[in-house]
Predict the 3D structure of the following.
Amino acid sequence: MSYTMVTDESDDAMYSSIYNESPSADNGCTSRGKGSVLKKGPWTSTEDGILINYVRKHGEGNWNTVQKHTSLARCGKSCRLRWANHLRPNLKKGAFSKEEEQLIVEMHAKMGNKWAQMAEYLPGRTDNEIKNYWNTRIKRRQRAGLPLYPPGIHVEDMHWSQEYPSTSNNITGVDRRRHQDYMQLGNSKANVLFDDLNFANVLFEDLNFATSLLPRASDITDMFACNMLGTGESSSRYESYMPPILPSPKQLGGSGSRFNIRQEFQSPEQFQNAAPQKNPRSCNISDHPMYGNQHQSDVMIPDSHTFTDGMLPTSKPLFGAVKLELPSFQYSETSSAFDQWKTTPSPPQSDLLDSIDTYIQSPPPLEIDEPGCFSSCDTGLLDMLLHEAKIKASAKHSLLLSSSEKSFSSTACMTDATQNVPRGGETHITSAESPCFVFEAFAGNVVKTEELDQVWEPMRVDVIRPDVLLASSWQDQQGRFGIVRESNSMSDALALLLGG
DNA sequence: AAGGGGTGCAACCGCTGCGGG
DNA sequence: TCCCGCAGCGGTTGCACCCCT
């Protein structure tokens, strides 16, 4: 549905309305324009014209001065929003394309509700659009009883509750920001699993952060999985997948949200028989069955049905209550959805996004022997995917903006893309309290340039730092870890995502 | 044709970070 | 170092339009 809130009216009528019809004395814009209260509500075409002219003359920014220099009785925030969301050039209107939707889904799995960051990867789209799209998607799929994420996209974020143990029922604003930041970081470590259904074969695993606190992420992962597979008591598939994310103060204080999707585990018993027995503090990834070359196919999740086999490790009980909260993308769902997920045959390919979404939200954790080790390995492939998408988007955007030839050299691409990529020699990072993972990683041709192919050398990386790990384990040229089975698949996926 | 609920977009609101004085 | 104002972000709400009965 597309319609405009802008109304046509004469200047006189507009100015009359501007200065006389504000229903609220204070709408959050505390300043007053020309002695009058500021207008709120839908923008008129005349107001748009005034704002456009102002920006032409003065440029963006200094939004609070708009009302000083123009007859516009809008607060700076309102002007900025109007400009950013509707008036600025190069805005793309209309429905999201399939590629855009796909990218949003994947980015949300990766970043959470970081709408502004997502918007950076979608030129012409605003954070507001993306946010609205996502909220609409939540509602739509919730109504339909469908899982939110496509199969193979597995989102977990277990680390917050580990770094901020269950004490934090009233976190401060600073902590809230830390939470957000940590979520961002944590999401970069999120387990995101793509299956073969036209997606890249990607596996993201979280790093073993703060493993000494509370149940480890992998433990909870296993608990979720066991519950989901019927070994636990949980009847809700999504309960099983709830990562223990600390509630924000707003959420704790009740909500006026239309989507109050917070849930909690009712008791630790829900996790009975659901934790790994081993708690390795280090691992050699090359020895790991998941990443060793002997079980390559096991790494990936061809489709969700794999997990109906119940091939999951036994787990140990979770001690103590763990307050868990659904992130925004998760919601309660009846077991019927899970049943559907378990029994529905493969989707048709014609409508990839919707059909895939129909089947599962997130595949459970993989069959592993050493969950702690497994969860310590993060390919960071989506990071790079996003990075490359951003690069390409920027390039396209630059081309749009300027007719002059704006250089987008492979060198620049390489420089940018390899900022996080350690190369050459051994990187060894240690931490007094963190386990040190030692594995061999072969940085690959993530960015498909010859320069990169030439520059990136096989290397050995001792990693405990997520960025290093992310960068180092990007793509396995030799398929050594089975993280990405085929580089061509990755390229295809990128092409698919980027529409070219 | 009418009306009531659903849907989706636009805008508002509150909070935080940052930079300048 | 503190304070203040601005910019930006994410959550929330209002309302016009759609669609079904």
Summary: Chain A has 21 helices and three strands. Residues 1-5, 24, 27-29, 40-43, 77-78, 81-82, 85-86, 128-129, 132-133, 135-136, 139-140, 173-174, 176-177, 180, 250 of chain A lie near DNA strand B (CB under 10 Å from a C1').
